[in-house]
Design brief:
Elements: E1 15-16, E2 23-24, E3 43-44, E4 60-68, E5 74-80, E6 86-90, H1 97-109, H2 115-124
């Protein structure tokens, strides 16, 4: 699938998501620069600063977490699968709510230790 990073901008019209193939319309609300697919939340490593399209990497940016900022605004944390660069991107009004919720719940559902240990300690009061 061809990468359409040149049109990955709110001013250039829709683009095709390189991860899921969805045609993504320009941003309507919640963000100044459309920087990820609202269906699968994946992005491309195209910016050095938001909207500049100057990054040379052009790697796929995997959504790996949610950051809830101090003012309560949610942002998706993306990690470049090519170079490891991390970036926070504001969620948009049309982002997939189930995908956002699933990512936010992942730390509680995919713990690196048995959750039973935690609940046993709580029950024992320690």
């Amino acid at each position: 699938m061809s990468r359409t990073t040149e049109t990955h901008s709110p001013f250039a019209g829709p683009f095709v998501c390189v991860h899921c193939g969805r045609v993504v319309p320009p941003a309507e609300s919640g963000t100044e620069h459309r920087n990820h697919c609202p269906a699968c939340l994946w992005s491309l490593h195209v910016d050095l600063r938001p909207g500049d399209r100057r990054a040379g990497c052009r790697g796929d940016m995997e959504p790996i977490g949610i950051w809830i900022k101090g003012d309560g605004e949610w942002a998706v944390i993306h990690r470049c699968t090519r170079c490891g660069f991390l970036r926070a991107n504001r969620i948009a009004g049309d982002d997939n709510e189930l995908a956002l919720f699933s990512m936010a719940a992942r730390p509680l559902t995919d713990m690196p230790f048995p959750s039973r240990n935690v609940f046993d300690r709580i029950a024992k009061g320690s």
